Amino acid sequence: MGVVGKEIAVLWRKASSGDKAPFEKKADAAKKTYHSKMEKYQKTGNYKKHQMRLLAWKIHETKKPFRKDENAPKRSLSAYMIYTASVRKQIVKENPDMSVTEVMKEQSAMWKALGDSDRQKWNTKAAAEKKKYDTKLARYMKTADYQKYVVERDAYKAEMKEKRNKLMGVKKRARTPTKAKSAPKSPSKKKAKRSARRSRTPKSSKSRSVSRRRRSAKSPKSPKRSRKRRAEKRKSKAPKRSTSRKSRTPRASKSRSKSRSKSRSASRSRSAKRRSTSRSKSRRRSTSRRSKKASE
After folding, report:
1. How wide is the angle at C-alpha 53 spanned by C-alphas 52 and 56, nearest 5°?
2. 64-117: per-residue pLDDT in tens?
3. Where are the domains of the chain?
4. How far apart are CA 253 and CA 268, in angstroms?
5. What single DSSP character describes residue 171?
6. List of residues 6+ apart from 136 with CB closer than 8 A
7. What 3-state class would DSSP assign to 212?
8. 91-99: which pairs have CB atoms within 8 A and are 24 or more residues apart?
9. Model-wide pTM > 0.90
């Protein structure tokens, strides 16, 4: 397809304007129909949904992490990874038909079956390798390659952040210039303010004394009247002890006695009714017996 495309491009360049004219007319007509359809499509809801998805995809692309450092030393393996690497060859020899996932499952089962004493050997190996990695990393961080990588990484992050803010419509806040600190006030002004405050204090005491004198100059209230008023207020505030309570107690006792007498009379009447019904029944029985004997 690439070779055919190149040959077609050469033929198009060699063609005259008369030969190109019918193809150009067709292209213009197709372009007009496309623009008319596109204008209609942009007013639909599907276009808006597509634009929202496109915006979300673009924002997601700005959150991709920077590439890994190629020159950095490789990280040390964990105790589990060291053990699986040592056991893998043995599992593959014993089970050549096993798939990769089945081999990994077998490795994890063997690791779980190990006791604490058996795992300790692999943990010590992992700790030794981690120490070696830390020393290599500390040396590498002092090199020029690492400094170059850091500069490129920071520039990439700043660029992606700027793009993200533009897509999300976040505007940068203009930093307000910090006000210059005012020069410390002279001690003479401070002393003047303190003296002014001290001079104000006696004036306030005078005004208080004048107000007290005016209050005392008013007509003094008689102590007898004030006592009477206090006693009246106490009486009004205190809850009134009504005499109805005293009168209620004997009434309550009378009502109780009446209710008791009524209940007794009702019980007596019920017992009398029962007796009368039992007597009437016994009479009826006796009369029925006599009538039977007479008939016999």
Report:
1. 90
2. 999 999 999 999 999 999 999 999 999 999 988 999 999 999 999 999 999 889
3. 2-62, 79-163
4. 23
5. P
6. 73
7. helix
8. none
9. no
